[in-house]
Amino acid sequence: MITEKKSYQENLKDLRENLGTMLPKEALEVFDNDAKHLHNHHKSILKLQVGDKAPDFSLSNATGKTIRLSDLLKDKRVILTFYRGTWCPYCNLQLSHYQKSLNEIHDLGAELVAISPQTPDESLNVKEKNELNFEVLSDNGNIVARKYTTVFINNDKPVNTMAELGFDFDAHYPDDSRELPIPAVFIIEKDATVLFAKSLGGDYRNRVEVSEIIDTIKTK
Hints:
- By secondary structure, the protein is of the alpha/beta class.
- It has one domain: Glutaredoxin (3-Layer(aba) Sandwich).
- Helix content is 40%, strand content 18%.
- It has helices spanning 8-22, 25-41, 69-72, 89-99, 102-107, 120-130, 145-148, 156-164, 210-219; strands spanning 58-60, 66-68, 77-82, 110-116, 135-138, 151-153, 179-181, 184-188, 194-198.
- A five-stranded mixed sheet has the order 5-4-3-8-9. Strands 1-2 form a two-stranded antiparallel sheet.
- Strand 4 (110-116), helix 6 (120-130) and strand 5 form a beta-alpha-beta unit.
- Helix 1 runs antiparallel to helix 4 (89-99).
- The longest helix has 17 residues, at 25-41.
- The two termini are 32 Å apart.
- Keywords: Antioxidant, Disulfide bond, Oxidoreductase, Peroxidase, Redox-active center.
- Its EC number is 1.11.1.24.
């Protein structure tokens, strides 16, 4: 029997229940308060809107190969998703959620690419951890992210709380800037025109549903 894929929001409910049993209550409150703070302080997220031309870029993938946006666009539309890092459970959930619909995305003539400021080694980790079959690129210094979405400096409190839980935030990145992109998704046409641009805001717990991406590709 074929079962319906869960939506991101349905998966998020399961994740929240798991985090509630895995993390100390005080730690989860720190992370949740951070998400609420980012939501309240970042209202205008996107740097590109529908109809704009997407800036070209070249970034290293998980094995060190250079991937150029314009090369990908020669054959297919490209879906770009900007995420925070391997350590972020919501990013892992989103990427895994998208992976489950990757065959449908490919059948619709599109390619999926995920971008974060992590090192290539960490990009490889996120691919292996979530069994991803799409490109995961390293945007050192958030050079590309700044042209597409908002970049901010991660607060000390969540970073310190991560350290107390045994996670070294800085080890995931090639610098100590602690800058992160606010998650956002773009669909780029072959002529580099932005077909779709969306972020659910600074609250990184919320992400764009893959069904919305697929519906957009199907109807436009």
